Amino acid sequence: MHMTFSPEWAAAYLRHWRKNPALEVTQFLRFPRGSSRDTWFVSYREQAGAAEVHDLVFRMDWPTGSIEPSPLYHEYFVYERLGRTQLPIARALHWEADADWTGDAGPFYIRIRVEGDWEVPGFLDPDPKFDELRIAVSKDHLEKLAQVHCVDWKALGFEEIFPAPPNCEIAGAFYIDQVLQWLEDLQSHGYREGRPIIREAAERLRDAAPPAPRISLCKGTNGLGEEVMRNGKVVALSDWEEAHLGDPAADFAFMQNFVPEINRDGRNLWGLDKAVEYYRQVSGIGVTAENVRYYEKVRQLKALTYGINAAVSVSRATAATVRMAWVATEVLNVSKRSLAKTAGIGPGITDEHYLDYLQTL
Question: Candidates 3.20.20.70, 3.40.718.10, 3.30.980.10, 3.30.200.20; correct CATH number of 7-112?
Fold first, then answer.
């Protein structure tokens, strides 16, 4: 059965799920950002004319598949388990895998929609009058990440879905092995390409892997565009598709503008070193700038999984999106060039250019 996600389908499904034939859908809107998975905002009233409106998020894989190698259920699991904590996160409500409703589109899940926006007005404006805003937003985000990294992931059962490094000494090498396994799995889905650059870079990164200060739940993708913001504060940590267990320094490798370098009159007001020091104060976790820079290189390796996954999807799809094709070509190319530099076998691109480029993902 082919499932077309539409206002009519959403109304029928919600009436079934809520066991309420009088339920009325009041909003049906696709979230325009992001390329990892398909996201829809759906609002409803229990009956026509009711004052209370319930705001939901429906989350599912694209018809061509996700660029993220981890299963959609892992993302749902994170929301469901962290919803039991005091973390600012949207509460997961329901996982749906009944083929009578999903058809050939695959499972989806529903979570509460938290009021807010991904943007922070003025944050990207380079005018010095916004410096205090940028620093305050960065600090608030670091405080929220510190809460994530201090979560008791064992008590919450995260080992059910994520492999955990056996100890802090090999956390970096363990993560690289996971990425290589994802890439190996993609071979069985039709991706055929020699990978000498990948292997060479991965071996060098494994040899250079630093010990972790602790094993934490890591969010994976962070920063502007990845969280729900309101009045300059993170009101919901979002986008958990890259969550894993490992070195909390890995979360600094993808901050999307939330650790801005601010220099005025020859003085450094804010940047990575100051952000790491502030994080250490609020978390008590000994993350170092050196470890962060190491994981910025590991991030290049991880980015390959998006490009290759997208390439596999595009090759199998009859109607892939333009954004999916862009990830399959441009992102894949830039990631390979960056890895070549890491492996010492090519000029690649500058680290600053690469990090700026990742902001567009």
Answer: 3.30.200.20
